[in-house]
Amino acid sequence: MKIDTRIIKSNTATDVYIKASATPNIAPQEQANELFNGIRRILESEDAKILHERIYGTEAALKAIRSIRADIYGSYDDGVEPAWLVVPQGINGQIAGVQVHALRSEESPTILHLDNKACGRIVQTGESKYLTISCIQAPEAGEAANQARVMLEKAEIVLKQADCDMFSVPRTWIWLKDILSWYDEFNLVRNSFFTEHGLIGDGTANKMPASTGIGISPGNGAICGMDLAAVIGPDKSIEYLDAGGNQNSALKYGSAFSRASRVETPAGTTVFISGTASIDSSGKTTNIGDASKQIEATIGNVRAVLSEMQCRDEDVVQATAFCKTPEIEKLFQDQWSDLVWPSVTVIADVCRDDLLFEMEVTAAIAK
Fold first, then answer.
1. Exposed, middle or buried by CB within 10 Å (0-12, 13-18, 19+), for 216?
2. What is the CATH number of the domain that holds 47?
3. Is 175 helix (H, G, I), strand (E, B) or coil?
4. How far apart (Å, rounded) are the C-alpha atoms in residues 151 and 140?
5. What are phi and psi of 177, to 5 degrees?
6. How many domains does the chain have?
7. What is the pTM of this model?
8. Is the CB of residue 272 less than 8 Å from the CB of residue 170?
9. Going along the chain, which residue ranges are E strands?
């Protein structure tokens, strides 16, 4: 097993970021025992509670390991399900990896509910509250566009429990089954929702969350699902980078997300960098058909945004590489083995058929 822990401390809180990948080519149950025992040991040693968790694996593996996770975590399982995310088998076997953001603070997280089900957590640290929602979805809504709209409306309902709204959200992660068949339709839904709620529009300063929209299915058969992070604090506590690094605003080609956002989080300053690919300043795909050059361009684009947000490679606490095929996953791991970002690699379609690779990162700097 490979496990990476990044710890950010302040006087009032400690953020703990965990990336865990199991031993390849063993049964999912054995992988789960490795992963969740390793994560629990870190939670115990840091006296930290889970804020946000994602588990990437095949559909069969995710079904097989749910009870194992609950048994091993024990009291660390507070009833909020992780984002169970269905991906094909890759280099690490049937479970691609687990990402956890945990927190040690004076107060334990309070559980948020939707439809009588635990769906997220909120915790007070100093003057601010930090909130996460885990893979909210609406399979009952029917067609893809309807599910996307109701998913966004449900997120707003949960945010209102904490006396906030989408203006408090610096980051979303959106999981879209069969993304290539309906990504344009999804963008229309999101654009309409954001316009109605004042996040974008003529004469307004765009306040779009940083985001990843990627071709990964939520684990219960829904067409789409969403994770988000929100911060409830002083005015102007979230900064948005609409255009940055080597790329202009994504809104110019129809996608309502910022390139990055920066916000004060429990233990320091956190920078969320959106899913980024080999796209130029005009919004066109570059290096078509050349996976190696697309990977290089993508990492260059991410690094450009990191630099603009006053972050270094060493400040990255969480990263995900989305590879279109197993061959591209191997290429990334072989050619970028010295990359210091704690990366989980998964196989997934990106939002355009000619994009072969996408990467997102989170960076954090202690107060």
1. buried
2. 3.30.1330.40
3. strand
4. 10
5. -65, 140
6. 1
7. 0.97
8. yes
9. 2-9, 13-21, 49-57, 83-86, 95-105, 110-114, 117-125, 128-137, 171-176, 210-214, 217-218, 224-232, 238-241, 260-265, 268-276, 316-323, 343-347, 357-366
Q: What is the rounded CA–CA span in Å between residue 246 and residue 298?
A: 10
Q: Are residues 186 and 148 in contact, defined by beta-carbon separation less than 8 angstroms? A: yes
Q: Which tokens sit at 353?
A: 């058929």
79 three-class SS: coil
Residue 38 has a pLDDT of 98
Look up tokens 């040693």; give the residue.
45
Alpha helix segments (H runs only) across 206-275:
none
pLDDT in tens, 271-324: 999 999 999 988 999 999 999 999 999 999 999 999 999 999 999 999 999 999
Q: DSSP character for 168?
A: G
List, for residues 120-162, the tens digit of each pLDDT value.
Answer: 999 998 788 999 999 999 999 999 999 999 999 999 999 999 9
Domain range spanning residue 305? Answer: 2-366
**Structure tokens given for 174:** 């959106």
- For residue 157, the surrounding DSSP H or E stretch is helix 144-161
The predicted structure's pLDDT at residue 246: 85
Residue 65 DSSP SS3: helix
